[in-house]
Every structure is written in C-alpha cells, then in structure tokens.
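Re: that chain you flagged

S.,

Sorry for the slow reply, it's been a week of failed gels. I finally had a moment to sit down with the sequence you sent. For the record, here it is as I used it:
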Amino acid sequence: MENQVSKDGMNRRDFLKAGGMSTLAITLGSTGVLTLGSKAFADTTNNPTSGFGGYGPLVQDPNGILDLPKGFHYKIISEEGGQLTNGGKIPGAFDGMAAFEGPNNTTILVRNHELSPGAANPVIGTKPYDAAAAGGTTALVISPNRNVIKEYVTSSGTIRNCAGGATPWGTWLTCEETRSATHGYVFEVDPQQPENEMSRTPIKEMGRFSHEACAIDPATGYVYLTEDASPSYFYRFIPNDTTQQPGALQKGGKLYAAAIEEVAGPSASTLKQDKPLRLSGRN
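Prediction finished late last night. Pasting the structure tokens below so you have them in one place:
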C-alpha cells in the first residue's frame, strides 16, 4: 500500500491505523482496552510524526514468540503437529476462519487448511471428498475462559482451502484455490455436524475456478465471490433457494460475472454484464 497523502493531510496508512484503533476500542472497551486506547492517542512520544501514539513500545517476549505492548498478552490455543481430540495430528497451513456461537456459551472456531497433495500434516478425515487431497477444515470448541474443549476435523479431501466466508445461518463456506482435476469448488461446512454429506458435496453451480473468498448479503441471500487467478473475476451467485439455511445453496442457482463495459481487454473481463456462466463452471 502506498503511503499517499490525501487532500486533508491524512495518508491511507494513518487512516487505517485510526480505523483499527477505533474498532478495537469500541469492541473491547468493556475489558479496559478503551482506556488504554485513549491514553495511547494522547501520548505521541513514541511516534511523534504519525499523529498516533499506538499502544506504546513492544516488550520483549521471554519465550521469543510474540512481542506485545505492556498490558497485552497472548495465548496459544492450537499448534500444527499437536493433537486433535481423537489423537490425530493438527493439520498445518492455517488460513481463512470464522467464529460461531456454540452450545453452553462456547465459541466454535472453524478454520481452513491451505494444503496441496503431499503436504506434511494433512487433514485426515473419516469421510473425505477426495482421499488423495490434503486440505480441509478443522474446528475448535473454546470455553468462555479461552480453553480448548475439543478440536476435530470438520471436512477433508479438498485442495488449498484458502479463504471462504461465514454464512448468516451458522455454517462456513470453504473455498478451494485451485482448478486441479475434480477440484476448484465451494463446500459448505457445518461445524456442529462435522464431515456430514453436505461438507463433502461440492456446490458445483457456484463455479469451478480458483476461488478466494465469498460473502453473503443477508437481505437477499445472494453470494458474492472473488477469484485468485489471472485474469480474475468478481462473481454473484443467486441461489434458487434463498431460505438461508444449511444445504439451501446445494439446490442450485445462477452464477454471474461482473463486467466493465468500457474495457474490452481480457484483463478486465470478456463477459457481458450479468451474463450467466454455464452451470458446469469455467472449463
């Protein structure tokens, strides 16, 4: 990101600092961080040129893992190669994730593992989509005091699960960032029903391409998707079933790609605006 100064004198990097500080203060104000944030704003001695004081200097971590400002601490809740609840190894390459409300005041954290075939510490499930693939998702059930109660595989047999998106109805859409063979799809994962049939059934009508992230408009149930390829497109999926419940996206729909009519080159788009793609995906 360029450190370009805008007309009002604030550059984009400082704007992001302000936005991040404000969000943290609003979100965590009840824990005392609001007070710390206010003090940090007033004290600019650590960085007098930026206009923002931050949270003070970093304190060296005696464990050599993560240096944090005074008053902050971290807690490691899961490490690659550690043990899942069933005794298996915790997979590597943590990537996109989301937190959901669980039973008995717990939090369920669902996360991707962006692994290619042959990777160390693959996701090993009992009902994989493709037994030769190393990627997938796992979940952690975390207690109110931030202890891990359970850690388990929620889906397996996929490739390069990069990003995705949380649904308003409590499931996780995990996206494959690949177009290898029978891969390149979106899968819906229910953390409270791990490795069910839905989790290993690709939503083919959401396209086969190098998926990145997706987000759902709760007002319409439409899904917006991004791509990590060259060229890349911005997509909208309109489901046939907009009831917004687990499995509804499996009932099909239409996938559209945005187009910039003023730019004819393929680096922008080769599709007319809102022209639906073939339901078999881009092959």
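What I noticed first: Residues 1-13, 15-45, 268-283 have pLDDT under 50 and may be disordered.

Talk soon,
D.
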